[in-house]
Amino acid sequence: MSVSKNIAVIMGPTASGKTSLALQLAADFNGEIISADSMQIYKGLDIGTAKPTAQELKSIPHHLINLYDIEQKLDVYRFVELAEKAISEIHSRGNLAIIAGGTGFYIRALLYGLDTLPGDAELRAELDAEYDNPTGYEKLKELMQVNDPADFERWQLHRRKLIRALEVFTLTGKSITELQTLNKPELRFPVISWNLCWDREELKRRIAKRTQIMLDAGWVEEAKNAIAAGILNTPTAHQVLGYKVIGEYLDGKINYDIMRERIITNTWQLARRQITWFKKQHPETENIQMPTSYESLKKSFNL
């Protein structure tokens, strides 16, 4: 695929301000935003995935948001295909493509290409049959924690990625993490890439504040509807943060305060993994210490 240089990438942990910055840049530079959040692609998960508001979606063209029903499966290969198509369409209109989101694995695959790690269809089918279910997933985590702790640390909350890691480990005896360190890929095209970095205590406060805002906005009711629609048993959407915990609250297993604190804790744990990922997997990025002046960023934004 031929891609022009006019691609901006805004990455960073959850609650770091990616959406706000992307909207400002899009307004000032004739941009269109491509979501790099693996859960925003699903319909009905609006509050819990912190999607842009209806007004924001109306004011700036967005891509890869509200495309899938929750029972549909999204993987990195499909994401890259959809993102490439969106980039091509945006450039055909002479506009700036802005990639914004926190799903680092997807962003890396788009910027550097899909991995060339070995695979075996027959082995993968066997692993899927054994581990791609709730009971098998627990066994998988125990196995990977012992045999491949590096990949376990990266993907313990992502069943499909962990199965893929086991496939590679079985074939090579090495973790994906080790193989990616040995084989340093090159960017597929030039980008302007920013990683939004916050003081950790301040980011914790931002996460707590945003969690309460989301709960006040009706997240519990949204989760109730999503759970009734079967989200906790879906191929990919079940990974969305917070809905399972809200389900425990709805079932009377925990109270409201415990629910809120567990969501905040789980979100912070996700943010920590994202911070580590963007630091280690994206050498192309410029680290932006937040908060910072938008005007200063705008002046440095040279296409």
Structural features, described:
The chain has 303 residues and is of the alpha/beta class. The protein contains 14 helices and six strands. The protein has a six-stranded parallel beta sheet, sandwiched between helices. β2, α2 and β3 form a beta-alpha-beta unit. α3 packs across α4, α5 crosses α8 and α6 packs across α7. The longest helix has 26 residues. It is globular. The model has no long low-confidence stretch (mean pLDDT 93).
* CATH top-level class of the largest domain: Alpha Beta
Label the CATH architecture of the largest domain.
Answer: 3-Layer(aba) Sandwich
Range of helix content: 40-55%
Topology as a string of helices (H) and strands (E): EHEHEHEHHHHHHEHHHHEH
Report the major sheet: 6 strands, parallel
How is the CATH topology of the largest domain named? Rossmann fold
CATH H-level superfamily of the largest domain: P-loop containing nucleotide triphosphate hydrolases
Briefly, what is this?
By secondary structure, this protein is α/β, with parallel strands linked by helices. It has helices at residues 18-28, 54-59, 76-92, 104-112, 121-131, 134-147, 149-155, 159-172, 176-182, 200-216, 219-228, 243-250, 256-281, 294-299; strands at residues 7-11, 31-35, 62-63, 96-101, 192-197, 286-289.
Topology, please?
Layout: E1 7-11, H1 18-28, E2 31-35, H2 54-59, E3 62-63, H3 76-92, E4 96-101, H4 104-112, H5 121-131, H6 134-147, H7 149-155, H8 159-172, H9 176-182, E5 192-197, H10 200-216, H11 219-228, H12 243-250, H13 256-281, E6 286-289, H14 294-299
